[in-house]
Specification:
- The protein is α+β, with helices and mostly antiparallel strands and about 800 residues long.
- About 50% of the residues lie in helices and about 20% in strands.
- The chain has 29 helices and 30 strands.
- A seven-stranded mixed β-sheet has the order 18-30-29-28-19-26-27, sandwiched between helices.
- The longest helix is centred in the first third of the chain and has 40 residues.
Length: about 800
C-alpha cells in the first residue's frame, strides 16, 4: 500500500472536492480518499500493484481538474559538457531517478533545471547521478518554494482580473442605471447614449463594456460548463449559467431594439452579468488572500530550517546545502546560528533556544552527549555535533508532516456538510429553474422578472462557505497548536478532545520527573547534613540502583567530595554495608537497621511520615549508631498541580495510573489533587484500566511517555504522548506534547473546544446563509409585498459569505495557551 498527496488545481468550491473524491474512489486499488478544499490537496491510499500515480492523475483530469505531485525546483551548473550529446546524457541520467518530475539541460548556459519530489529524491542523489554520467553538478540556487510562488501569482492574477472587470463594470453600471438615477444623483447620461434619444448606441455601449468583463471571468465559463457536461456541476457552473443567461437575454434585447422595439432598452441585462462576475472575482481574490493566512503555521515551520550547514571534512570547514548533509557528518555551529539537522554534541558547551519547536522559552544547556534538535538556535558557544537524523527524518520534518497530515484530514463534524456539498449544485439548478418557471406560468410575471429570479437563485447559492467551514478552522487550530508545542495528529482527534470527561495520567515521568531526587536529610547523633550525605553518597558510589544514584547526584550537586570505600557488601532486599575511613556504614531500609540490633531512637515516626508523603526513607548507621535518614522520592513536576487544577475547572475528572504501592500513589495523588488513584497496576494492565473507565460511558484521554504506556494510549479515546517520551508512545498517540509541561494538556483541550466552537459557528453561518438566501432569491419577500432580490446584491452576498467564514476561522489565531 502507498499513501500519496497530490496538489489540486481548478477547484472552486466544495462540490469540486466531492467530484474529485467520486472520480478517484471508483478506481480499482484505491482504499481511501480525502480531498481538502481549503488546502487544495488530495490524500489518497492505494495499492501500487493495481494502480499507478499517473492513472490517479488521469482520473482527476477526466473529472475536469489537475493533480500534481508536490515538487521543488533547483538549478545546477553542469561542468564537463562539450556537446549536445552531453546534454542528452545528463538529462537521461537524471530523468531515471524516481521522484524527478521535470528535467531541462541548457548547453549554452551549462545549467540543469530540475523539479523533483523531495520525499523520493534529494540533491545528493541528483549529484551522484550526474557524476555517474561523467559530469559534475554544482548547485547554484536554493530551493524555490514553487507552491508559494504559484499561490502569490494566482492572487496577483485574481487582483488584476478584478481591477480590469471593475474598470469596465463601473461605467457599465452608470450607463445601465444612470437614466433611472440621474435626477437622484444629479448625474444625467450624455445625449448620445441616452436610451430615449439613441437606444441602439445605449445598448451597443453596454455590450462592448460587458465583453471585457466576461473575458476577465472566462474561467467561470470554461470550468463551469466543462463540469456541467461531465455531470458534476460546481459553483462555477452556477455563475456561468447565471451570467450567460443575463448576457444572452441582453443580446436578444439588442435584436429587439434594432427591430424597432425600443421598450427593450429597459430590459437590457448586461449590468447584471458584469456586476456578478466583478463581485465574484473580488470574493475569490479575498478568499485566496485569507486562505493563504490559514496556512501560515506550516510556512513558519518550513521557514525555521536553515538552508546551509558548515561541516568538518578532512580538517576543513565546508559550506553545504542542508540537503547534502548526511548522517555521521560533523557539523560546526557558531553562536547565533541555527542547528541545521538533528544530532548529538561531540565537542563544546552552549545553551540552545528550542522555543520555536517546543514553546519552552528558557534556553537549554547542551554539552557533549546531549541531543540537538534541528532548527533550534545556538545562543552562546561554538559546538561540534554529529548528525543523527537528516532530511525527512529530523524532528522538524516530522512535525511539519504531522501538522500537514492533520490539516489535510477531515473531522467527523464535517460529514453533513460533505454530503450536502455533493448534491448542492444540482439541487440549486433545479430550484432556480422551477422558481423562474413558477413565476412565469403561475405568477403570470414577465420574462425579465422570471430571469431575475433564475439568476439570483443561481448566484446567491454558496457551496464555498460549506466547503471552507471545517477545513479552514482545522488548519488554523492545528497550526496554532504547533506554535505552542501541541501537535494534534488529525481532525478527528481535534474534535474528540473537546468531549473528554476523564483524563488518566501515568505517574512516573508524566506527573513526576521520573528521576528520584534527595528530598529530606534528617540528622541524629552530632553529624551535619552534608557529612551524612557525603558518607551515604560515598557508600553508594558506582551503584546502579536508582535510589543510590539519586543520593550520589544529590551530593555532587552540593559539590561534596566522595570518599573511596575500603570494603563493599550488598545485602539483597535490605541495603549495603560499607567501610569508609575506618567507619562501618550501614545504608538501607528499616529491616537492615533492626536486624543489626540498632536502636531506631526517635526517628521511626519521622520515617513513617516521610513514607506517607510518597518518599522512600533510607536509614544511615555509622559504627552501629543511627546517624540519620535520607529520603529519596520521584518528585512531582513543577506544573502538575496547576494542570490538574485547570482540568478540574474545565469539569474534567483526573485519574493517575501507576505500578507503585497504594501508599506512595495516594501520597503523590494528594499532593497534586488527583480524583482517582489506580495503584499497583502492571504495565500490561494499563489498557484494561482505561477500558474500565470507558465502559462507564465517558470519553477518556490517557497521558503517558513510556513504551509500556503505548497500549493504553491506543485504547484511550485520545492518547496524549509527552514529547520527551519514547517513539513508540508518540506513534500510538493522537496528540503529542513537545514539552514535558502538563499545562499543555489543558491547552490541547481548550484549543479543541475553541476550534470546534469555531467550526460550529462557520457551519451555522454557511447553512443559515444558504437557507435564508435561496428562498429570498426565489421571491419569498416579494410574495409578502417585500423587495425582489437583484442578482447584483445576490453576488455581493455570495462573495461575503465565503470570506466571512474564512475571517471567522482566522479569529482562532488569537487563541492563548492555558495558564
Amino acid at each position: 500500500m502507498d499513501k500519496k498527496v497530490f496538489k489540486l488545481e481548478g477547484m472552486t468550491c466544495a462540490s469540486c472536492a466531492k467530484a474529485i473524491e467520486r472520480a478517484t474512489k471508483k478506481l480499482d486499488g484505491v482504499t481511501e480518499v480525502n480531498v481538502n478544499f481549503a488546502t487544495e490537496k488530495l490524500n489518497i491510499n492505494f495499492d501500487e500493484t493495481k494502480i499507478s500515480s499517473r492513472e490517479i492523475q488521469s482520473a482527476v483530469e477526466k473529472a475536469g481538474y489537475k493533480a500534481t505531485t508536490e515538487a521543488v525546483s533547483k538549478k545546477f551548473t553542469i561542468e564537463g559538457m562539450t556537446c549536445a550529446s552531453c546534454v542528452k546524457a545528463v538529462e537521461r541520467a537524471t530523468k531515471k531517478l524516481d521522484g524527478v518530475t521535470a528535467v531541462n539541460v541548457n548547453f549554452a548556459t551549462e545549467k540543469l533545471n530540475i523539479s523533483y519530489e523531495p520525499t523520493l529524491v534529494n540533491v545528493v542523489n541528483i549529484k551522484n547521478a550526474v557524476e555517474k554520467a561523467g559530469y559534475k553538478a554544482v548547485e547554484v540556487e536554493t530551493t524555490i518554494d514553487a507552491d508559494k510562488a504559484k499561490k502569490e501569482k494566482e492572487i496577483q492574477l485574481l487582483l488584476k482580473k478584478f481591477i480590469v472587470s471593475a474598470v469596465f463594470t463601473i461605467p457599465l453600471l452608470y450607463i445601465a442605471m444612470g437614466h433611472m438615477l440621474g435626477d437622484l444623483i444629479g448625474l444625467n447620461l450624455p445625449g448620445f447614449i441616452d436610451p430615449m434619444i439613441n437606444p441602439r448606441i445605449f445598448a451597443i455601449t453596454q455590450l462592448l463594456l460587458t465583453i471585457p468583463v466576461m473575458i476577465a471571468g472566462y474561467k467561470f465559463f470554461t470550468v463551469g460548463f466543462k463540469t456541467l457536461i461531465k455531470r458534476s456541476p460546481n459553483m462555477d457552473s452556477l455563475i456561468a449559467i447565471g451570467s450567460s443567461a443575463a448576457f444572452l437575454y441582453g443580446l436578444y434585447a439588442i435584436v429587439q431594439i434594432y427591430n424597432g422595439n425600443v421598450e427593450y432598452t429597459g430590459e437590457l441585462y448586461f449590468e447584471a452579468a458584469g456586476v456578478i462576475i466583478t463581485l465574484i472575482l473580488l470574493g475569490k481574490y479575498l478568499e485566496a488572500v485569507t486562505k493563504g493566512k490559514t496556512s501560515e503555521a506550516i510556512k513558519k515551520l518550513m521557514g525555521l530550517a536553515p538552508k546551509t550547514a558548515i561541516i568538518l571534512k578532512d580538517g576543513k570547514e565546508i559550506d553545504l546545502s542542508i540537503e547534502e548533509v548526511e548522517v555521521g557528518d560533523i557539523i560546526i555551529v557558531k553562536p547565533g546560528e541555527k542547528m541545521p539537522v538533528d544530532g548529538e554534541v561531540v565537542e563544546g558547551n552552549t545553551s540552545v533556544d528550542e522555543s520555536m519547536l517546543t514553546g519552552e522559552s528558557i534556553p537549554v544547556e547542551k554539552t557533549s552527549g546531549d541531543n540537538i534538535i534541528g532548527a533550534s538556535i545556538n545562543k552562546n558557544g561554538t559546538i561540534k555535533y554529529r548528525a543523527t537524523k537528516v532530511g525527512k527524518d529530523t524532528a522538524l520534518a516530522q512535525i511539519i508532516k504531522l501538522v500537514e497530515d492533520a490539516q489535510g484530514s477531515k473531522a467527523p463534524i464535517a460529514k453533513l456538510a460533505d454530503i450536502i456539498s455533493g448534491y448542492f449544485v444540482p439541487v440549486v439548478l433545479v430550484i432556480a429553474a422551477v422558481s423562474a418557471l413558477a413565476w412565469y406560468f403561475i405568477g403570470d410575471k414577465s420574462t425579465i422578472f422570471s430571469l431575475t429570479i433564475f439568476i439570483s437563485v443561481l448566484v446567491i447559492a454558496c457551496p464555498c462557505a460549506l466547503g471552507l467551514a471545517t477545513p479552514t478552522a482545522i488548519m488554523v487550530g492545528t497550526g496554532k497548536g504547533a506554535e505552542y508545542g501541541v501537535l494534534i495528529k488529525s481532525g478527528g482527534a481535534l474534535e474528540t478532545t473537546h468531549k473528554i470527561k476523564t483524563i488518566v495520567f501515568d505517574k512516573t515521568g508524566t506527573i513526576t520527573e521520573g528521576k528520584p531526587k534527595v528530598t529530606d536529610i534528617i540528622v541524629n547523633n552530632n553529624i551535619t547534613q552534608n557529612e551524612l550525605l557525603q558518607y551515604a553518597a560515598s557508600a553508594e558510589k558506582g551503584s546502579e540502583h536508582p535510589l543510590g544514584e539519586a543520593i550520589v547526584i544529590g551530593a555532587e550537586d552540593l559539590g561534596l567530595e566522595l570518599i573511596s570505600h575500603e570494603s563493599f557488601k550488598a545485602i539483597p532486599g535490605h541495603g549495603i554495608e560499607v567501610r569508609i575511613n575506618g567507619n562501618d556504614i550501614l545504608l538501607g531500609n528499616r529491616k537492615l537497621i533492626i536486624e543489626n540490633n540498632i536502636d531506631l531512637e526517635n526517628l521511626e515516626d519521622i520515617s513513617d511520615k516521610l513514607a506517607s508523603e510518597g518518599k522512600t526513607p533510607m536509614y544511615v548507621a555509622i559504627n552501629k549508631k543511627l546517624s540519620g535518614i535520607i529520603a529519596v522520592a520521584d518528585v512531582v513536576k513543577e506544573h502538575s498541580k496547576l494542570a490538574v487544577e485547570k482540568l478540574h475547572q474545565m469539569g474534567i475528572q483526573v485519574a493517575m495510573i501507576t505500578g507503585d504501592n497504594k501508599r506512595t500513589a495516594k501520597a503523590i495523588a494528594k499532593q497534586v489533587g488527583i480524583d482517582i488513584v489506580l495503584a499497583e497496576v502492571l504495565p500490561e494492565d494499563k489498557a484494561n484500566e482505561v477500558r474500565k473507565l470507558q465502559e462507564k460511558g465517558e470519553k477518556v484521554a490517557m497521558v503517558g511517555d513510556g513504551i509500556n504506556d503505548a497500549p493504553a494510549l491506543a485504547q484511550a479515546d485520545i492518547g496524549i504522548a509527552i514529547g520527551s517520551g519514547t517513539d513508540v508512545a508518540i506513534e500510538s498517540a493522537d496528540i503529542v506534547l513537545m514539552r514535558s509541561n502538563l499545562m499543555d494538556v489543558p491547552t490541547a483541550i481548550s484549543l479543541s473546544k475553541s476550534t470546534i466552537r469555531n467550526i460550529k459557528e462557520n457551519l451555522f453561518w454557511a447553512f443559515a446563509y444558504n437557507s435564508l438566501g435561496i428562498p429570498i432569491a426565489m421571491g419569498l419577500l416579494y410574495i409578502f409585498d417585500g423587495p425582489l432580490l437583484k442578482p447584483m446584491i445576490a453576488a455581493l452576498a455570495m462573495s461575503f459569505s465565503s470570506v466571512s467564514v474564512l475571517l471567522n476561522a482566522l479569529r482562532l489565531k488569537r487563541f492563548k495557551p492555558a495558564k
